[in-house]
Amino acid sequence: MAERGCRFKALQQELQIPGRNFADAVAATCGESARWIAQIEFRGPWLARVPRLPAKAATASPASPLPEILWPVPANLHAPKKGAEGNCRLLQPLGDKTCLPGWKATRHNQPNRRPLWIASGDRTEPASGFLTLRGMTQVLCGKLNEWKTDSALLIRSEQLFGFDNRTGIGVDFERLSAAESQIYAARFLSLRSNVAHPEATGERHYDIQFYGELVLPADAPPDLLAGIQTLAFGGEGRRVALRKAARASFPEVNVAANSQQRPCLYLTTPGLFAAQPASPYAAEPAWLHAQIVASAVSGAVAVSGWDLAKGGPKPNRFAAAAGSVYFFDQLPDALPGSLCDAESDRRAGWGHYLKGVWNDE
Predict the structure, then answer these.
(1) Whether domain 74-118+139-153+250-359 has CATH 3.40.710.10
(2) What is the Cα–Cα distance from 134 to 153, expressed in whole angstroms?
(3) CB 3.0-4.6 Å disulfide test: which of 64, 250, 294, 324 passes with 93?
(4) Segment 190-231, tens digit of pLDDT
(5) pTM of the model
């Protein structure tokens, strides 16, 4: 919008007009030919590992190396407890005809809800970290093939990023000196670079980067990102370099016909959902609430930010964390690309998912 001469003060005034939608406000402040901006859809961002090219290859070829998305560990993936032996296992809904003592069938007025269960006596706890494409595909298929916690398919977070902790102090602008009682701390992700590839032989290394996708309307110009080399990202004046990349591969798993397989959906980005009496923390999509037979939600993430269009802070909301998994007997015929209840949240990148299967045994 800035590249197209948007008058942001005028945009704020337009959005304060009752009934004014974002597309009309963009057209009024950037020109009618820029209305397509309001139809852009974003996907991600995700962490990805990108192979490092030798210096000569990087300068000789404009082709971008293929990024591999690293997926947050699903909430139903369990690893052996610290100090215990064993393999990683998957929580799945308990069989429909199996009665678990103490489980109320009418819990939250949802008679179809089932508890999650591991068919093993091993001592386990929720796994942590990120999965490679091959690892995520196995999880979505419901088959782990005797995984160990040190599997190259399961990557520890510290192998991908660290944290940069900073301390700052407020400024008294009248005295041009430090303000009293206004010391604050900030924490930033510091992505790793030149990391050895755990599954490759030889001297293969990669960098950890953010990967995202833009879905553009038909009337968007082909040179959309021309002249935009960096973006503000993460607050405190932090910026990221922007470049086009080859499209990453996504795992695809479908329910096999004439089998006991049932579908599940795995959140790859945090999901913002409408609160409801049966789910006060908005842990599940309201529009699919009645169809869910079990869920594994890995916690809530507080999200906010600064609204550039309205010139003020966004409300603080809580999203179901990426890695949350929802189990179904069957899915609607047509699913949107995001599980969020609000169209604006879907377009902004929240609530994206992958399809998987579980065995109803």
Answers:
(1) no
(2) 7
(3) 294
(4) 999 888 866 655 567 889 999 999 999 888 888 888 778 888
(5) 0.87
